[in-house]
Request: fold
Amino acid sequence: MGIFYEEATKTFHLQAGDSSYVMQVVDNGFLAHLYWGRKVEKYQSTNRQPIVSRSFSGNPSSAIDRGLSLDTLPQEFPVYGTTDYRAPIVQVQLENGTTITDFRYDSHRIFPGKPLLEGLPATYIEEKEEAETLELQLSDRLSGLKAELLYTVYHKRAVIVRSIRLVNNGTHSLRLLRALSTSVDFRDDEFDMITLPGAWAKEREIERFPLRRGTQSTESRRGASSHQQNPFLALARKDTNEQHGDVYGFSFVYSGNFLAQAEVDQFHTTRVLMGINPFDFSWKLEAGEVFQCPEVVMVHSHEGLGGMSRTYHDLYRSRLARGAFRDKERPVLINNWEATYFDFNAEKIESIAAAGRELGIELMVLDDGWFGKRNDDKTSLGDWFVNEEKLPDGLENLAARVRDMGMEFGLWFEPEMVSADSDLYRKHPDWCLHVPNADRSESRNQLVLDFSREDVCITVTKMVMDVLSNAPITYVKWDMNRHITEIGSAQLPADRQRETAHRYMLGLYSVMERITTSFPHILFESCSGGGGRVDPGMLFYMPQTWISDNTDAVSRLKIQYGTSLVYPVSSMGAHVSDVPNHQVHRITSLKMRGDVAASGNLGYELDLTKLSDQEKEEVKKQVAVYKEHRSLIQFGDFYRLLSPFEGNETAWICINKEKTEAILSYFRVLDAPNPPLRTIKAYGLHPEKMYIIQETGELAGGDELMYAGIVIPPSLSGDFASAVFHLKEV
Ligand code: DGJ
Reply:
């Protein structure tokens, strides 16, 4: 297991978990891709690509063989202008205005462990023995630019992490026009591409479609990873399903503009590229300077989509998320947003907290509206001091009183934003992203602070840290409620304006790093109008996220199911809200709302003081049952069993690592006369263990539960029904 180099053939064989990835230095220093897939013990290159000369596929002048064309060679670091016509991984403009580069292999080194990326979120290791890294040095003969390609393999996970450092070793400044992080050439195009598009309140819908010739892509130009697309792409073989078949996942550890694409060429080969979106991007690299590309986490699974997801879940839960809460059970919370919106005072918050305490809820989260003069969304973002009209005794006092009840206290912020009607904006009108002489477009009545500026980052960090230092706060919800327009910074010179979007991300990451590491006792939850920034970059700073503003239980089935393709259950905030639901006006049962939310990090978001006694009893029970099982739900293995994207029913199962306990949840949206009987196969259990189904008292082997299944009782009736089965080894 690890990284092997064979000098005679100049072949690199990377073994990660049960996968292999092979490349070779060919001809005069080109880096060819040979294989990625199921692990092979010793790669002998039986699949080597025959050298075939093709018309209109030229040969680099140094090519020894007429058959060598970069247009046909599967490569690791493809560039433009020297016979490859497919999309390149980097493109550089030299001082003379030209954009041709010719990168060749120089040297390499293999070392234990995995380096962190400066200023960027990244997966990590805890012990050096967990991973090994190959660094390949390539240099461009024309510009002096050096590319350091990093490949980290995790020994026990089918994970290869790729990133690139570009170092200007020349004497002139260069302009990066494109600096992507990974490129993989597959030998054929017999794949389906899977992406996670969506919109506000309907994030991460699974889309699967056959590759066709040409380029198919998913990207964000919104300044955030966005609700609309997610920085993820997978290629799955046609017969790949949840449990079987090959799939290749690409997940970008970045929260801003990204591009992920698959290009099928004339020979039916497929190139996948992923990285910072080249759209409206360029970066001036002075002599001696370095540009670090964010990393891409590549996962191969031959156990279907489920296998891929669980590899991502384990890695992201334990080697991307950080901090004291990484492995801690997450508290059950009550959030006042849908209970009161902006209309609250200290007494109201206290009464909701008191009601929550009675029901076993552990954390009171005060959402938007506690600061400045904020009584609606038109004002005060940027003025992070308490709204004395609503909280006359101050925030500290309210937090202390909530804590005296035996509850933790959490607070909402939107640090990246400023309202035109705010003291901060009146004082610093040039602190928002803007373009000279252009109007400043508002969205939700707000502007975006220019986090590419150090002074802005320092001031905002201080304001947030002052609040966190002065009140007993143990949870923060970090929101971001608009996308970026008029991208430009008053502090950058003309020839660096196109760096603004990436500099914004670097500034944001530095602020988040400073704040989250300064308050290790605080649980941070990211949010962007719900799930607008559900991405691995955010997970590095904040171990959980509010995955959607849509709290309707039926909509949530798809949102949680789709999100689970990449992101672990421990990262998903899931709340029970009021009915009719505020986003879609649907009335669902409290049971179903509870069962759906209890498949994530459970919370409540409604006015608990208005519940009937019967509803209170039901909530109390939900909370108690959840607490009993939350470690299994939040940190166990997640298997998708029935897809809400394919019909009226959904099912999934969470199983603890030892496979001694599991919770299977089944949901049916609409009832129908004479419905077919449904059995659910409890995939993922241990076939040789005996389990008791606690709800029915039945005993059965794991093999029977997995292969024959559990029947859904026909007594389950009515619309919006759910059934939960707790399985325990006996
Ligand atoms: C959008 C978030 O997703 C909501 O949960 C809430 O915090 C509002 N913003 C507050 O403005």
Remarks:
- The mean pLDDT is 97.
- The two ends are 36 Å apart (CA to CA).
